[in-house]
């Protein structure tokens, strides 16, 4: 029995059963994509609260429509479970679990490790496992491979590329990107062996517009890191230049708009109150951590981290300056943060610099409220417990704050109203000028 | 008499006489552009050897065709001179002089200073002066303006925006770019006053496809720096990642090609043996120098400089490794550097990392030759005096070298021949793999 032929055939026939572990921003859209192409998909998640929601066709992610889930459930193409023993039933296992940092900014591999150990328990011959989580080069080879070669589900050793197949294929989700969705973003794939690569490409080709083959899982792991390191470094660069130009009396936003008119060799990045989201502030440090094993340091990543991490503190310094010109201290001043999602038009708070802003302002005895149309209240996280609810945005409430701190520039905010009613505004996104609202009560940070 | 109206009128009628100071890679094409639009242009240069060449219609820059110069001369639209007293005769003075660094990597403002002082001697009412040289924010306001406000050519003070006009408009030349030429690259313009801006835009609109207005000369100065800082930092970033990935056994070139397939948010930059040319290695330090005046440091620029400057040394380390595997030392080894221009398909040696490579290799007692189809011999510079001529590239000569060090990937090189005849190759541009020439005698640096 040639296992690779059997699996290839199942994929081509769409009779392969797909298991997806981790039903968040990456796993859920991918599961729905496979379901929409008539594969039967089982979604696995350790968060047991998600399971009944999904199985009754309800979404917990703002930009993923419940209808899509409901339709997949109804057609019996998708079901969710927290029973990982069902992993033995699927032909393909796709791992989409988080790879955060711990408090010392080191990779927190718990989710990948635990998931891999569960797979080790249930893996059977003929399965393909792919990892999509962003991680350091070597993860697939060094961490996953030895576990699956020594399955707890069998008495013998498994041979990769013959008994099972293993590949790395980084997710490239960009929530709310109007131009690209899961299926239309080309996907990089690296296999542990030639067979692994072949099966993984066959799989992804059924749902993704284009697969890009690289020579190893390490190259695939590195490619995703490069993409996010590039963003992290370039955002840090404009954040640094923002602070330098500000001292020189030059507006970075004007400078970027001018530089952007160069038709080649330049790409615009914009400053802000700090990095947010689950990728850019985190992923680069996976490489930093791994590099130490090779006696080498990642200076650009460290510097970018340093400068980006400093931005909320810089914003608070600016806020103190603005209050100071009115002879006021930050202590007892009333500050309203407008927009607390990590980027505009999403309901995603992960790593949002606004949380850090609230923390710093609290420590300095300011009175902080917030408004965000997408986030009615701030949930308790591992790091923060603010017990804050979004206020209502009216002329009356706005006028009560000493400063409006514009942190996230959602499209649906009423900037005219904010400007009209505010006493002072500190704008970290240059949104007021972009909306042609210019006045001497608006400052930039 | 309203001087601005007179000058605007002259520009519109194309009866304004244009003076361009500095007839190099920026000034010469710009002069020819104005001449081709029927302006009468006088080109000024302190290099008296250039004057008779130009006046007899001969080019000294590879990508500028002599015919273009000859035709402009013949139509009496262009003439060159080293007699700066003729500056009083022109209506517009455009400064295109070099802004290099001194040996301590500080701005060398000699050319701008001397030029401005000469203009101070001859400036007359009704003239427009624009500066195009890349420089620190504040140069136009702080260095040029006070000189022209106190002309030596008159007994009275001149008022900027009334008696004369002053603007900054950075050059964006990209020699050998097949898609863009002087006239089709949008041009940023900042004026000292509104009148200055108006006249400068009127002028550039006659030859440039589009002018981009900014609020000050400082913003214009900063925009050019941002463009080049962006490039310098991103090249340094891939150079750093090249060294890190190499230690991990990952090929940076493959990783970049994979990352490049992301259809948004990523732009590819490529590693190399070091930075070259008159812009990217130099311009960023103009901001670093100025920033110190404001008690702030430019960490990204410093780090990029550090990493890019290290690259030729890294290449030599790799060269030593390659020789070492054959049990050979660098001392007495015969090394052929192929390509010494700072980038492919140009005859430009300025700041070329190949010069630094030759210097390092000489110091380590290697026997170095070079081949470059565009550079028959290495001219003596302020820094180097090698007395080397390009060898001829044959099977016979190639086979005599221990290592061929590919430094610049000109399109017209015979890579098949090089590969066939070489003993070992160290490729800093990944050109052999890109030409599908793959063998175990090729190494990458």
Concise overview:
The structure is a homodimer of 445-residue chains. Chain A has 445 residues and is of the alpha/beta class. Chain A is 39% helix and 12% strand.
Describe this structure in words.
The structure is a homodimer of 445-residue chains. Chain A folds into 2 domains: 213 residues, Rossmann fold, CATH 3.40.50.720; 211 residues, 3-Layer(aba) Sandwich (Rossmann fold). In chain A, 50% of the residues are buried. In chain A, helix 1 packs parallel to helix 7, helix 5 runs parallel beside helix 6 and helix 11 crosses helix 12. In chain A, the strands form 2 sheets. Chain A has an 8-stranded mixed sheet with strand order 3-2-1-4-5-6-7-8, sandwiched between helices. Chain A has a 5-stranded parallel sheet with strand order 10-9-11-12-13, covered by helices on one side. With 445 residues, chain A is of the alpha/beta class. The radius of gyration of chain A is 24 Å and the shape is elongated. Chains A and B meet through helix 8, helix 9, helix 10 and helix 11 of A and helix 8, helix 9, helix 10 and helix 11 of B.
């Amino acid at each position: 029995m040639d296992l690779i032929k059997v699996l290839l055939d199942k994929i081509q026939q769409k009779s392969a059963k797909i298991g997806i572990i981790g039903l968040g921003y990456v796993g859920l859209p991918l599961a729905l994509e496979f379901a929409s192409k008539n594969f039967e998909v089982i979604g696995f998640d350790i968060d047991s609260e998600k399971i009944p929601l999904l199985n009754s066709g309800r979404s917990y992610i703002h930009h993923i429509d419940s209808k899509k889930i409901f339709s997949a459930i109804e057609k019996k193409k998708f079901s969710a479970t927290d029973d990982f023993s069902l992993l033995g039933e699927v032909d393909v296992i796709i791992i989409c679990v988080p790879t955060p940092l711990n408090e010392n900014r080191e990779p927190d591999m718990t989710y990948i490790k635990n998931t891999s150990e569960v797979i080790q328990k249930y893996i059977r011959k003929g399965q393909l496992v792919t990892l999509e989580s962003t991680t350091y080069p070597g993860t697939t080879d060094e961490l996953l491979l030895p576990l699956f070669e020594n399955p707890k589900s069998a008495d013998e050793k498994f041979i990769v590329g013959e008994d099972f197949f293993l590949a790395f294929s980084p997710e490239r989700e960009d929530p709310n990107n109007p131009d690209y969705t899961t299926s239309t973003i080309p996907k990089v794939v690296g296999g542990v062996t030639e067979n692994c690569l072949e099966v993984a490409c066959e799989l992804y080709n059924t749902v993704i517009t284009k697969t890009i083959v690289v020579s190893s899982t390490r190259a695939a792991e590195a490619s995703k890191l490069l993409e996010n390191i590039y963003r992290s470094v370039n955002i840090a660069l404009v954040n640094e230049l923002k602070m330098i130009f500000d001292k020189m009396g030059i507006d970075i936003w004007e400078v970027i708009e001018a530089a952007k008119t160069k038709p080649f060799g330049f790409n615009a990045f914009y400053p802000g109150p700090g990095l947010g989201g689950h990728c850019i502030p985190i992923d680069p440090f996976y490489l930093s951590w791994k590099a130490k094993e090779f006696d080498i340091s990642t200076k650009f990543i460290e510097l970018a981290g340093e400068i980006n991490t400093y931005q909320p503190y810089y914003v608070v310094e600016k806020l103190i300056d603005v209050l100071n010109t009115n002879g006021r201290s930050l202590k007892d001043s009333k500050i309203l943060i407008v927009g607390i999602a990590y980027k505009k038009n999403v309901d995603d708070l992960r790593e949002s610099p606004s949380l850090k802003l609230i923390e710093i302002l609290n420590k300095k005895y300011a009175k902080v409220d917030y408004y965000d149309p997408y986030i009615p209240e701030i949930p308790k996280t591992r790091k923060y417990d603010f017990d804050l609810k979004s206020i209502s945005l009216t002329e009356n409430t706005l006028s009560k704050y000493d400063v409006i701190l514009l942190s996230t520039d959602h499209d649906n905010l009423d900037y005219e109203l904010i400007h009209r009613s505010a006493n002072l505004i500190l704008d970290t996104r240059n949104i007021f000028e972009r909306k042609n609202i210019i006045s001497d009560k608006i400052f930039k940070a």
